[in-house]
Amino acid sequence: SGASLRYSTGTGGEGSEGEGAGPGSSDSGGSGFSLAASALPERRRPGGGRPRYEVVRELGAEEVRWFYREDRKTWKPFIGYDSLRIELAFRALGSAGGGSGEPAAVEPVCVRSGLYEVDVASAESYPVYWNQTEKIPVMRGQWFIDGTWQPLEEEESNLIEQEHLNRFKGQQLQESFDMEISKPVDGKEAIHSLKLSRNHVDWHSVDEVYLYSDATTSKIARTVTQKLGFSKASSSGTRLHRGYVEEATLEDKPPQTSHIVFVVHGIGQKMDQGRIIKNTAMMRDTARKVEEKYFSNLATHVEFLPVEWRSKLTLDGDTVDSITPDKVRGLRDMLNSSAMDIMYYTSPLYRDELVKGLQQELNRLYSLFCSRNPEFEEKGGKVSIVSHSLGCVITYDIMTGWNPVRLYEQLLQKEEEELEESWMSYEERRLLEELYITKQRLREIEERLHELKASTISKPPVLKFKVENFFCMGSPLAVFLALRGIRPGSSGSQDHILPRTICNRLLNIFHPTDPVAYRLEPLILKHYSNISPVQIHWYNTANPLPYEHMKPSFLNPSKEATSAPEPESASAAPSPTTSPVMVRRHYGESITNIGKASILGAASIGKGLGGMLFSRFGRSSATPQTMEAGKDGPEGDDKKATTVGTPPLPHSSSGFLEPTVELEHRIDFELREGLVESRYWSAVTSHTAYWSSLDIALFLLTFMYKQDQEETDKSNLDTL
Q1: CB 123 within 8 A of CB 78
Q2: 471 forms bridges with which residues in the sheet?
Q3: Quick one: DSSP state of residue 304?
Q4: Where is the composition biased (Gly residues) (predicted)?
């Protein structure tokens, strides 16, 4: 929620939790802590501490804190802005429904950056933008466990609060809430007690309250420790605090959303429904950590919304299930729920249903977000899409409007051209001309009809928003484009595969061992097939070089020098640019290739340890040609060093055409391999490893915050 539990303990603060309490740790209230009386955290209050000798009164709305619990984990506090508004709605519900006896209708409270709503009457929270079967319980916290500041269960908390007010209301507090150390309760007798179902509460003074478990083990432990001379409170009591450690204020609110990111899933969603919601939550959480560390100076933030498009589609119903044999049923069902999506997409019958399903869901989410955040469009809010696996292909087709019918028309046109060139009789030629004229007439009529329709009904755009960045993760898009006939061009523009008018920036992210991922850059310029993708910076890299300043480098520099037929051509620059080359260090080879010997057998051992350590598995091998290149020794190195800055020749040493043309922007970005990572194991796991990566979270935010960061830096310079 973004709320932080900020408190400072006095002497014995943490040491008194469980450790110094001996065997009598309490098991009441879900706390599991035994706390000494000397640990009273300082209560943080924006307007300063309470005045001394304040009288006991009912808790203010700012002192109560609301909590939520996801996946049956611990209770998490709402931030002050959310908690205060929930509490005000709760009090409005109580006052409105008090007279009539019927619960009054109270508007749901929007919380957690607008992603969830809280129904105060049912004490539940639910997501706004996606469906979730499990409701998230919320709880009103009044009394809290010392140290953890976890709330007592609401039923017990209400009973304790009621008893506290009945007994002490109007009495003056003898201690200030801002005093770090309170007087020890050793030797003090309880002035008041309350029996609960499994516990009991002792008041030693107005603001010194302890909770004790009535379980048999706790009673025995208490008896033993008291006989040893320890007081009841210090041996097995859990100290309670009335009111939360931090007051709730409306100023403690989340930053405004300036950029929304739609996260689109790939195959397998039918097999594991709700997986994209969990994956998006992981990506959102890692992005929050990165935002706090690197972008905390910006007043806006990026919000991630899951796009679950698969579950609403009927497709063939259960036809495929009915024709599936029963043997190895589990494996077959898994394939039907995952790989079958690819077959559906290549089917002319179901492809449109998949495209329409994703398109409608994207537009629905955008319209819903804008209706709840009307200032988003007014202030120039931006939209990016992060797609995974097959989702990249469907998203691309929606943005570009690509349809297999176009491909079919192109094939027909090609056949017509081939027919015209072939020999045919007079009668055949006459009939062909008639067919050609009829088709042309049909096209003209269709165009006129479309014009008439367009004049009466303006066709809405496919997507209701302009895409700022399109991030592909583990994407097979390049293969689909290659099979559709897209070939490298002579221009280094992204427009060759995705026009900038549709999407400002295309970025292709992949793990080097992801078997589903392919590169896009060689589809734009052919010589980029031998230029390494840009390495994504590690999350904790200090002062990383900006991506736009990183120079391209060859995948196999040694290969470049040896593939030239003549010695003169070796003097050509080993780079696609005239700038010096940064030789790429093959990541992970020194360790992962040691395992290669055991797999490839004695033959690879015979090549020597050097071959194992310096050849990249799966990309290059120690061929005789490359081994000869190693014989050049220092002379060859000197020759290379003297020619780095020389202008390139019309043909580079790789055999490609003159590579002076560069890409306007790099598109392929590769995650770095771990040094001890097994490539065989990572080939299995890498396709689903993108969601929780801090490296990817930083990469995404770097591009999405780029303009905001530049504007902030500019304004800072102007101020200076």
Answers
A1: no
A2: 386, 507
A3: E
A4: 10-32
Phi, psi of 215 (to 5 degrees): -65, 150
Catalytic residue IDs:
389
Size of the chain in residues = 720
Gap between the Cα atoms of 612 and 605, Å rounded:
8
Distance from C-alpha of 382 to C-alpha of 366, rounded to nearest angstrom = 11
Query: In a 3-state reduction of DSSP, which class is residue 275?
Result: helix
Tokens, residue 283: 């990506």
Report the C-alpha gap between 316 and 341 in whole angstroms.
11
Domain boundaries for CATH 3.40.50 within the chain? 256-404+464-542+666-712
Tokens of 210: 């302890």
Residue 643 pLDDT = 36
Sheet with 256-264: strands ordered across: 300-307, 256-264, 382-388, 467-473, 503-510, 668-670, 534-535
Is the CB of residue 114 less than 8 Å from the CB of residue 128? yes
- Distance between CA 516 and CA 448 in Å, rounded? 44
Spatial CA neighbour of 469 closest among 290, 686, 705: 705
**Which of 203, 348, 365, 353 lies closest to 280 in space, CA to CA?**
365
Sole residue written with tokens 């619960």? 103
Give the SS3 label for residue 138: strand
Tell me phi and psi for residue 41, to 5 degrees. -65, 150
Burial class (CB in 10 A: 0-12, 13-18, 19+), 323: exposed
> Residue 296: exposed, middle, or buried by beta-carbon count in 10 A (0-12, 13-18, 19+)?
exposed
Ordered strands of the 65-68 beta sheet:
76-77, 65-68, 136-141, 124-127, 116-119, 109-111
CB atoms within 10 A of CB 648: 18
* 116 three-state secondary structure: strand
Most confident range, picked from 3-17, 150-164, 544-558, 572-586: 150-164
The amino acid occupying position 584 is R
Please check whether residue 395 is in contact with residue 358, taking contact to mean a CB–CB distance below 8 angstroms: yes
**Mean pLDDT over residues 108-134, rounded?**
93
Residue 103 has pLDDT above 50, yes or no: yes
**For 669-703, what is each residue's pLDDT tens digit?**
999 887 656 777 777 788 888 999 999 999 999 99
The count of C-alpha atoms lying within 13 angstroms of the C-alpha of 388, restricted to the half-sphere facing its C-beta, is: 26
Answer for the pair 55, 173: CB distance below 8 angstroms, yes or no: yes
* Stretch 104-130: mean pLDDT: 92
> For 535-557, what is the mean pLDDT?
87
CATH domain 256-404+464-542+666-712 topology:
Rossmann fold (3.40.50)
Of the candidates 510, 518, 502, 492, the one whose C-alpha atom is nearest the C-alpha of residue 469 is 502
Burial pattern 189-218, b for ≥16 Cβ within 10 A else e, equals ebebebebeebbbbbbbbbbbbbbbeeeeb
What secondary structure, in 3-state letters, does 678-714 show? CHHHHHHHHHHCCCCCHHHHHHHHHHHCHHHHHHHHH
Task: Tell me which DSSP letter residue 538 carries.
Answer: P
CA distance 653 to 574: 7
Ramachandran bin of 106, using left for φ above 0, alpha for ψ from -120 to 50, beta for the remaining angles: beta
Secondary structure, 3-state, 363-397:
HHHHHHHHHHCCHHHHCCCEEEEEEECHHHHHHHH
